[in-house]
Amino acid sequence: MFSVTAPAYQRLAQILELESPESVMRIIRVKRRLRIRVGTIRESDQIFTHEGRVVFALDEQMAKNLVLKKLDVKLTDEGPRLQLKKCESTL
Fold it and tell me: Which of 35, 22, 32 has its CA nearest to residue 82?
């Protein structure tokens, strides 16, 4: 099942601070690559909340495609960046 780590929730909330209250972050496909962009909640979305605010949404198809992934934060020289990672096996 797709998951979001605590550092990723915090980063999503930081990014959305300057956006309108109905804005969320979404994963979209751009030229065969996955990108995280600002968007809005859609009717059939799976939503993720942080401190009472919806900060992230996935549509049904994207949630199925990312079932074995998690959204995490990677620290870079330019600052923290959101990154999709494989979930570790629990077997």
Answer: 35
Q: Which of 39, 25, 18, 40 is nearest to 84 (CA)?
A: 25
Spatial distance between the Cα atoms of 90 and 15, rounded to a whole number of angstroms: 31
Which residues on neighbouring strands pair with residue 58, listed in sequence order? 46
Q: Which is nearest to 16 in space by CA: 43, 41, 34, 33?
A: 41
Which CATH number describes the domain made up of 3-86?
A: 2.60.300.12
Break the chain into its structural domains and give their ranges. 3-86
Q: Render pLDDT for 11-41 as a digit per residue (tens, 0 to 9).
A: 999 999 999 999 999 999 999 999 999 999 9
Q: Which of 69, 74, 34, 42 is nearest to 58 (CA)?
A: 42
29-48 burial: b if 16+ Cβ within 10 Å, else e:
eeeeeeebeebeeeeebeeb
**What pTM did the predictor assign?**
0.88
